[in-house]
Design goal:
The protein is α+β, with helices and mostly antiparallel strands. The protein is built from two helices and four strands. Strand 2 and strand 3 (about 65-70) form a beta hairpin.
Amino acid sequence: MHTFRHYIRESGIHISDKDWDVYSAHITSETFKKGDIITKQGEIENYINFIVSGISIHYIEHNDKQTIINFSFDNTYSC
């Protein structure tokens, strides 16, 4: 959570401690292993993800082929 708050500050966004306490109460943290699928094709993504460490690959499948459409890296949003 510290990394995420640091990212927000470095982005030039000021959030008071009081507002951060309210906001952070709704943040959950999950860890994924290499190869885990976060959202399957056809599903609706209900979350905004923040990549603390690692890489997220976004792809679509069509005719049994995977086409990469985006990458997300450390300290970036992914949705």
